[in-house]
Design brief:
CATH architecture of the largest domain: 3-Layer(aba) Sandwich
Number of helices: 11
Order of helices and strands: EHEEEEHHEHEHHEHEEHEHEHEEH
Helix content: 25-40%
Number of strands: 14
Largest sheet: 7 strands, parallel
Distance between the termini: 28 Å
Number of domains: 2
Shape: elongated
Oligomer: single chain
Length: 335
């Protein structure tokens, strides 16, 4: 990829993240120049504002703080107004925001985050365990001082279908396998997946769905997958199956989902993502007895921040050394 070490690498960093990232970047010893940018999408250089249209930037870092501060759209505007940009590194795993494609169309490489994979896969396991084990009943019996057995369902021997086999899908598969589940995955190409039992593409979905006790949605939201979990999808699910969506709300036709829950085809749905977020208070999903609903929190593990910083530091060092980048996104996946 060439020898970039002879040149200064200019990295755009959200100004509220400077304190946490400046010292680790300096320790890399790669002569990286930090250009801070503000929540309203302006660069500052030597204490003065810099017009983005005059800035050639090698690497732009979208930190999680942009999302918390509501400044992500302004950061996209900044990225799109730069004179030039080589790499955009984002904290997001899913890239359905339309501006990602606009950035890629300008020739920039986009790298997403795998830092959330461990947290989200643990969330999936916790939610499935909570449905398989009568924990609430056990707590009630304890409170009532009743000595009574509480049978539960084992994960061992159940069939899991994971739709999407990126970092989150792989982390979930490894954990389900560790508990003795049979794991099938749907991915874009039918390449063998290490440690899984069956691999197929979306063309194989109708064949794999009827055997699945647990169905995990972990795929990108694009024109191919938008609304694919609809009436036809739910007509093929195994009676009593559990559905977990930790990807994007737009993958599911909510009316078809509620119908499948009401008629008993689905036992429960675990939903962490929705068409509209925050979910409006009058949405029927809030009160449905077979829905376990959380507020897009599956990624909120206490180790995510550290892994995200490590990923960024590793990738920016790779860039400075002219080495291949991790988590490069195929522009074909952006819509």
């Amino acid at each position: 990829m060439g020898t970039r070490l002879s040149m200064s690498v200019k990295v755009g960093v959200y100004d509220k993240a400077i304190d946490e990232i400046a010292e680790p970047l300096d320790r890399l010893g790669l002569g990286i120049e930090i250009l801070p940018y503000t929540a309203d999408g302006r660069f500052s250089r030597d204490g003065a504002s810099a017009d983005p249209s005059n800035v050639d930037l090698h690497y732009l870092w979208f930190s999680p703080g942009l999302s918390r501060d509501g400044a992500l759209d302004q950061a996209f505007d900044l990225a799109l107004s730069l004179k030039s940009l080589d790499v955009l590194q984002t904290f997001n795993a899913g890239l359905d925001h339309p501006s990602y494609k606009k950035v890629a169309d300008r020739g920039a490489t986009i790298c997403n985050s795998s830092a959330q994979a461990i947290a989200i896969s643990e969330y999936v396991m916790a939610q499935v365990f909570a449905l398989f084990h009568p924990i609430a009943d056990q707590r009630r019996l304890q409170a009532e001082k009743l000595w009574q057995r509480t049978p539960f369902r084992e994960i061992a021997g159940t069939n899991w279908l994971i739709i999407g086999y990126g970092p989150i899908g792989r982390a979930t598969a490894s954990r389900a396998k560790a508990f003795g589940a049979n794991v099938s995955v749907i991915r874009r190409t039918p390449q063998a997946g290490a440690g899984v039992d069956r691999v197929g593409t979306m063309a194989d979905l109708a064949e794999l769905l009827p055997a699945a006790d647990v169905v995990i949605l972990a795929c990108p939201l694009n024109e191919t997958t938008r609304g694919f979990a609809g009436t036809n999808f739910f007509s093929k699910v195994k009676t009593g199956a559990v559905l977990v969506n930790i990807a994007r709300g737009g993958l599911i036709d909510d009316a078809a989902l509620i119908e499948a829950l009401d008629d008993g085809r689905l036992d429960h749905a675990v939903l962490d993502v929705f068409h509209t977020e925050p979910l409006p208070g009058d949405n029927a999903l809030w009160r449905h007895p077979k829905v376990r609903l959380t507020a897009h929190t599956s990624f909120a593990g206490d180790g995510v921040g550290g892994r995200w910083t490590e990923l960024f530091l590793d990738n920016v060092a790779r860039y400075a050394r002219g080495e291949p980048l991790e988590n490069r996104v195929d522009p074909a996946d952006l819509t």
